[in-house]
Sequence to fold (300 residues):
Amino acid sequence: MREESFTSTTQEKRIDSLLSERFANHSRAYFQEIIINGKVTINGKVAKKRTIPEIGDLISVHFPPTQEIELVAENIPLEILYEDEHLIAVNKPVGMVVHPAPGHPRGTFVNALLYHCKNIETVGEEHRPGIVHRLDKETSGVLLAAKTRLAHEKLTELFATRQMQKEYLAVCIGNPGSGVVNKPIGRHHIHRKEMTICEKGKEALTEFETVRFEEPFSLVRCKPKTGRTHQIRVHLKSLGTPIFGDRIYGFEKMNIKFEAPRMLLHAHKLSFIHPLTEEKISLEAQIAFPKIKSSSIIEA
Fold:
C-alpha cells in the first residue's frame, strides 16, 4: 500500500475535493470511498469526507494497491466492417468497454481482439494492445484497431495529425442548428472524471449539422476535427443541447421523462487513407438507436 503525506495550505475545501485536486489521476468519488474505508488521516486521526482541513494540518493518504489486470482472450463475437493483415474495424456494440480496467477486467474489445487476432498482445500499449482510439462504453459504432506494430504507429499518427475523417450521429435535446464549436476542453477542476470548456484546455473543434428536428429532439450529424475526451458531448452541452440519455452532461429531468435507455451517440462513419496500402478506406456502421417515448425522431 502506497502512502503519501502533505501539509494543507487551505482551509476552504472539503478533504475529498482537496485530494481530488492534488492527485488529479483519481476522482473525488474515489477519495470519498477510501475516506469511508479509513484510508485518509488528518493529524493522525481518521478523516470524514465532509471534514475541512485547517492550514498546517498533516494529511496522509494510504492508497489501496492497484488491481492487477490480466489480459485474457475471450471468444466474443465481433461485427467486422473491414479487416486485412494490418488492421481491423468493427461496429462496437453499446455496453462494450474498449480495454480492460479496474471494474471491467473481462468482456472488453481487447479481450475479443486477443481471441480473434494472433500475436496482437505485443502491439501498442501493454494493457491496451491494438488500440489506436476509443469510444465510450455507451457509444456504438466504428472502432478501429491495429494488428501489427507498424500499423499501430501509422494509425496513431493519422489520428494525431487529424487525417481521420470522423462522423457521428447524436440525438440531442433541443435544436443546435448547424455550425462549428471551437472551444477548448480540459479536465473539470473538481469532478476529475469529467471534461469541461476552459481557457487552459486543449483546442477542440466540432462541426455539426441538424439533420432533423422534432420537438423536443433533433438528430444531429457531428464531425469532430480534434479528438478530445468527451468532445462531442461537452460541445453539444455548451450549446444548451446535450445528448439525450447522457447521464453526465445531459438534462436529467428529460432523460427521466422520456425514459432514456442510454446515451444516444453513434460513431457512424470513418474515412482515411490506408497508411500501408494507400487505399481509400470508407467505413460505415449501421445505426441502431432505440425508440424514444412519444417521438418518431429515430424512425424518420
User: Anything to note?
Assistant: The first helix runs from residue 15 to 22. The two ends are 56 Å apart (CA to CA). The CA atoms of residues 291 and 298 lie 6 Å apart.
